[in-house]
Design brief:
Rossmann fold, seven-stranded mixed sheet, binds flavin mononucleotide
């Protein structure tokens, strides 16, 4: 019984620790990459690309000979790792994500061999996660790709709709993605809390975890504190009050992670490294570029405050220079993108 309770507690803790979305894509000629760029304008997600280990191959040459050969090898022995083309290591910790969206090209009515290699490697780790599938083809329909995905990842919770983009609807990618996001309930990010972390003259935007720890931390803001240097990778400060905890072992700490050690030690990490310690996640700086330089090597004064433009789950990752100052339509609202990589709600709502 004790063991079951421990198991349940572990499950609850890991569920609480992971509520993020990961987009995994492969793109040979750029179509899937363009879809990912659109998707990440509309939802808050981390993105990783799967790449073949062997570069410069031409899968379409000689009547698609190489692409065909790779797929035939998989078909002949789908349970044998040696049947799958080698890929570069994909450095992402899947345990951090509750939703994974696969964006892949179709090859000969099957899933592109390179993406099959990745899913063959991680299929078991995706069990129980919410899984979305977006497929790009010239014209062929995607049932074979869906079947490949279900063979490689049999135990995921598939979203109710897949998205198929092809050459005849590609011009409408933005609207198709918006509908797909809405129909699958992926746009429920209105409660996402953004804060500013101000170090000297530099302001970093961070997103708080949608958890009791994240929400309790938000209640303490604004907060200006002296943070102490430790180990060349973190700044910490003991808060006057305790916060609720849901601690877990992140394994890899990323620069920009904002964590709670114990129940009252606020830690801001400014380097990425492996760790065996347990923390409760408070949130993370969206773009930690320049953080290490800003906090320096000693103790530092840091201000935490709620963002004035706290309106949406859209994140910096999707905001390119060319987007700045543009009107952006998201989830029925109109936003203006700003120079500091946040979005301001204009007040307009379109339906
Ligand atoms: C080896 C190979 C086989 C393909 N087979 C098909 C096919 O059977 N049917 C189809 O409609 N498109 C096929 N395509 C076209 C791709 O599915 C399509 O161009 C897709 O949008 C490419 O995505 P990407 O640019 O992200 O690589 C094939 C492409 C390659 C390279």
């Amino acid at each position: 019984m004790k063991r079951i309770l421990f198991f349940l507690a572990t499950v609850c803790l890991s569920a609480a620790a992971s509520s993020k979305t990961l987009v995994v894509y492969y793109s040979y000629t750029g179509d899937c990459e363009a879809i990912v760029n659109e998707l990440t304008k509309q939802i808050s997600a981390d993105v990783v690309e799967v790449e073949p280990a062997e570069k410069g191959l031409r899968y379409e040459a000689n009547g698609y000979a190489l692409g065909t050969q790779l797929l035939n090898a998989i078909k002949a022995a789908p349970n044998d790792a040696a049947s799958y083309p080698a890929i570069d290591p994909v450095n992402v910790s899947l345990s951090e994500y509750s939703t994974v969206i696969i964006v892949t090209p179709l090859w000969w009515s099957q899933m592109a061999a390179i993406m099959q290699s990745y899913l063959f490697q991680v299929g078991k780790q995706l069990a129980g996660k919410q899984l979305g599938l977006i497929v790009s083809s010239a014209s062929s329909s995607i049932s074979g790709v869906v079947a490949d995905c279900k063979r490689l990842v049999p135990d995921a919770q598939y979203l109710s709709e897949n998205l198929w983009i092809n050459n005849s609807n590609r011009a409408n990618t933005a609207a198709l993605v918006a509908d797909w996001v809405e129909n699958n309930g992926l746009n429920q990010t209105e409660n996402t809390m953004h804060i500013n972390i101000i170090v000297g003259a530099k302001t970093f935007t961070a997103t708080l975890a949608d958890s009791e720890t994240g929400r309790a931390f938000a209640e303490l803001l604004p907060l200006t504190i002296e943070m102490n240097e430790l180990n060349g990778n973190e700044k910490y400060h003991y808060l006057n009050s305790t916060l609720p905890t849901d601690s877990y072992q992140p394994g890899t700490i990323k620069a920009g992670d904002l964590m709670l050690y114990g129940n009252n030690c606020l830690v801001l990490f400014y380097k990425t490294f492996s760790s065996s310690y347990s923390y409760s996640r408070i949130g993370a700086i969206n773009n930690p570029t320049g953080l290490a330089e800003a906090v320096g090597s000693g103790n530092v004064s840091v201000r935490f405050e709620k963002s004035a433009t706290n309106t949406t789950g859209l994140t910096y990752q999707t905001l390119k220079n060319k987007d700045k100052g543009r009107l952006i339509f998201h989830n029925g609202h109109v936003y203006i993108s700003r120079d500091d990589n946040t979005y301001t709600l204009t007040g307009a709502k379109i339906r």
